[in-house]
Amino acid sequence: MASTAVQLNRQVTSITDEDINLILTNYNRTNEEIFLQSYTVHSASDKILGFQAEYWKMKVHLSNGKVLYFFIKSIPRSNAAKANMVKEMQLFEKETFFYSVIKENIEIPDLKPWSARLITSLNDAMVFEDLNAKQYKLRNKFSTLDMAHTLQALKTLARFHASSIIYEEKKRKETLGEYKGIYYEYETALHLGEYHLATDFFFQCMTGALEAMKSFSKYDDTEMNLIESRWRDVWSTALSLGGFSSHQRNVVCHRDLWNNNLMFHYSNHSENRWEPDDCVLVDFQDIGYSPPAADVMLLLCCNLNPTFREKNIDVFLNVYFVELKKILDKYNIEINEIFTKEEFIASAEEQRLWGLTVCACLLPHSWLDDEVTTENFSDNARFEQIFFKNRGEFIKKMMEINFDYRQKIMGIFEEIANRYCLCV
């Protein structure tokens, strides 16, 4: 039934014939009779696509000639440090619960999808529809988003956030106002994850950034001393912004909106000119419950050139707000009863710190070429050292040998310092 290559990959991915039958059963929503002819499983890429999982692709041939394509995300089996991190923070269980319970409840059937469809969960793995087979693509991770890509991403984010609001408003009507919100219904799945001062990961992000600034920044001793005295408080404030707000409307937020978690579909508008016409979000292991502006500002801070971001910030916030209003109007929900535009803009200004801080956590280990990424993060000991023990040493080493890396990462650190440590 299967080739030698398939049997070899079974050892790596632990996909069994029983798993295949479960995948096909859950895929087949029409209950038509289908028969498996063969299947192959291979690594999704020779590059590291993400830092908290391993990724595989499966191609299934049916006896009727139809070919099905699936994408598999599994707990790392080749790196014990990564696997331990995922298990300790319950990231896999959190994402599985999001797709199988929260997303199933909040997703609106006639609203354009904002994420891939989960086919089924297996032992330490999740199986999705393969978005590449539907012509969705990742962008080059070194490329910042231009206007067209940013607007598509913001519209998708509005659809995602609208789903939470529509669900909550419906539940409140059904319970005559007694329903408190998604957070209280699924609190255990919406915890802060690695973004907490008590985690080694976040502590290393915070201290590693400060160490790098001491070695490479433009600041004099007086400025650096002031930055150092306020650094922990600033990062602590960012954490409070990224969590549940008692005075603003909250939604289920993605909280991990860097380049590799955005996939775009394209249409040919003219000869050799392809424009994005849709965006979907992937990797929901860091979900939380926060003001929607937290996700909006994270998206803008993590994926845009800072000058371009600030020059067009009013445009971006307006596009998101208008798209959210349009969706809510369709479901007879008045957006001003959720939050006004002025309240959203004020929240976005406040959430800029959250966006920059998460960006300062993500980019030092993601804005690296594939060879460096593979060399450092495939090895168990190196991964553990960089993520949990001495992140500053790694960042400084990369800044010494790569001027572009230094400029990119230092720009994030210095924006935090300039806005929140020196201008107070």
- CATH architectural type of the largest domain: Alpha-Beta Complex
Count of discrete domains? 2
CA radius of gyration: 22 Å
Task: Determine the structural class based on helices, strands and strand pairing.
Answer: alpha+beta
- Sequence of strands across the biggest β-sheet: 1-2-3-5-4
> Which stretches of 5+ consecutive residues score pLDDT under 50?
1-12
Task: Tell me the CATH topology of the largest domain.
Answer: Aminoglycoside 3'-phosphotransferase, Chain: A, domain 2
Bin the helical content. 40-55%
> What letter string, H or E per element, gives the SSE order?
HHEEEHHEEEHHHHEEEEHHHHHHHH
Give the overall silhouette: globular
Q: What is the terminal separation in angstroms?
A: 68 Å
Sheet having the most strands: 5 strands, antiparallel
Which CATH top level class of the largest domain fits? Alpha Beta
The number of helices is 16
Count of beta strands: 10
Mean pLDDT: 90
Range of strand content: 5-15%
Helices and strands in order:
Elements: H1 4-13, H2 17-27, E1 36-43, E2 54-62, E3 67-74, H3 80-88, H4 91-106, E4 118-122, E5 125-129, E6 136-138, H5 147-174, H6 182-185, H7 200-216, H8 221-242, E7 251-253, E8 262-270, E9 273-281, E10 288-290, H9 292-303, H10 306-311, H11 313-330, H12 341-366, H13 370-377, H14 380-389, H15 391-401, H16 403-422
Antiparallel strand pairs: 1-2, 2-3, 3-5, 4-5, 6-8, 7-10, 8-9
Helix pairs in contact: 5-9, 5-11, 7-8, 7-14, 7-15, 7-16, 8-12, 8-16, 9-12, 12-16, 14-15, 15-16
